C-alpha cells in the first residue's frame, strides 16, 4: 500500500482535551440538572456559561497559558466549575488538600508559583495564614473568595493580599478585590476558551497527599486526562444521566476524573461540603443517587452507621486507595451498595486496574465474593500494561498468588512528571519503560492482581515477610473493630514484629485482639502489640497515615530500650 500521503493533518490531529465534554453536555443535556447543592440546582447550560464567564474573567486578570491557579475548597459547586473554568483560560489547575496546614499550603503555593488562589469562605483563615507566611519579595497569589449562600455576612468583596506588603505585586494585581461570583457576573458568556496548542500541554497539578511525608507535584496533560476520563466511565459502566454523590474529595486526583466524566455522560453532581453517614443516606434517598466513590474509610462509615437501612435502589460504589477489608465489603453490600474496587494513584490520574467482575462469581458464597472484590484485578482498557516485577531479577513474578514483587505500570494516563523534580521523576519513571508504584503485589493464576502492601509497609519478622494488609483484613473481620492499621515495631530478637493500632466500636482489650488474630493467622503474623486509639490519623483522602504510626511504634521501641538501660 502506498501510504506516503497518509500522514497526520490538522483535521485528524486536534489536541485531545476533556474540556470539550462540557460543550457537548450543554448541547445534549442542556436542560438536565448538572449540580445539586443544598436547595440550589444548576443545568448543564448554566454550568457551561458560568465556566466560560469565569475563564473570561481569569484571562482579563492576566492569567494565561501554563500559569498555575490554585483552589482550596470543599466539594461545593464552584470547585466543580473550576475544574473546567481554570484550564479553559489556558491555566493549569491546582486543587489543594483542605486538611493541610498553613505551612504546607504555603510551600505548595510557592513551589508552583500560583498566580491566583480560590478559597472556600470556610477556609479563609487557613488561606490567609498560608499567604501571610510568604517571605518579603516573593510574589503572593491573589486570593478570590468562594462565598457560601448560607453565610451572607461574608458576601463583601475580600482580598487577602496583605496591604502592608504589596511592593512586590504589580499594580493590576494589587487592585484585585473580588469574589468568585463577581468573576461569574463580569465574565463574557461568549468567551472563546483557550484550547491547548498540543495535547501534551499540562492541564492539572496535584500534590501527592498519600501516606508519605514529602508531597510532590504531579503534572498531567490534556491527553492523559481525556483518555483517563473515558476509560473510567467505560470501566465502571457508567450510563447516561447518572446521579453522582460527591463523597470523594474533588482535590483527590480531580475526583478520579469523574469531575469531567459527569459532563461526558450528562450526570447530576450532588455536592456535599462535609458529610457523615446520615448525610450520605439522606442524599441517596433525596436525590436518587446511583453512583459514588470514596476511600475504604467511607465504606467503613456506611457499614457501621447506627442508622443504616437497606437502600430502595442499588448504589454503585467505587472504592480505591487501601484494599477494602472483605468484612467491610460484605456489610456494605448487605445494605444494597454494589461495590467495585479499583487501583490507581495520583501519578496515573485515576483507576487503572480494576476488579473486572465475572458472571460465574455471582454463584459463589457471599464471603468468597467479598474476598474477590477486595482484589485489585486487571488493567483497564486504556492502560497499556501492568506487571509485578521481582526486585532482584527484574522479571515478572509467577502467577501463583504467592510470589511478591513491585507493581509497575505503563500507559497513556501516566503523568508528565513531577514539577521541578527531574530526579524524583526518573526514580519513578525509569528507562526500562515502567512507572514504579512502590506497591507490593501478587498475580493470581487467573491473571488478577492483588496488592499486598506498600514496599515500606512489609514487616520482616524472623526472616518471614508479613503483609500488614492481610493482618488488617483479619482485624477488620472482628465485629468490635472499627479501624485497624498494622506497622512494624522494632524487636531485639525478631528484628521486627507486627504492631496493631485499632479503634473500637465495642469492648475489647489487647489480649482479646491478639487471641482473635491467633485463631486466624500463622503465629508469626499475629500482632505482638496492640495500641488502642479513639480515631486513627488519616490523610484528607481517607488513607491512614502509616508514617505517623511507624514513628509512634519506633518511639515505643526506643522508650522500651531506655527503660532497660
UniProtKB/TrEMBL annotation:
The keyword Nucleotide-binding does not apply. Residues 22-419 form the AMP-dependent synthetase/ligase domain. Coiled coil: none annotated. Pfam families: AMP-binding, AMP-binding_C. Pathway: Phytoalexin biosynthesis; 3,4',5-trihydroxystilbene biosynthesis; 3,4',5-trihydroxystilbene from trans-4-coumarate: step 1/2. Signal peptide: none annotated. Keywords: Ligase, Phenylpropanoid metabolism. GO terms for molecular function: (E)-caffeate-CoA ligase activity. The keyword Ligase applies. GO terms for biological process: phenylpropanoid metabolic process. Residues 470-543 form the AMP-binding enzyme C-terminal domain. It comes from the Eukaryota. Belongs to the ATP-dependent AMP-binding enzyme family. This is 4-coumarate--CoA ligase.
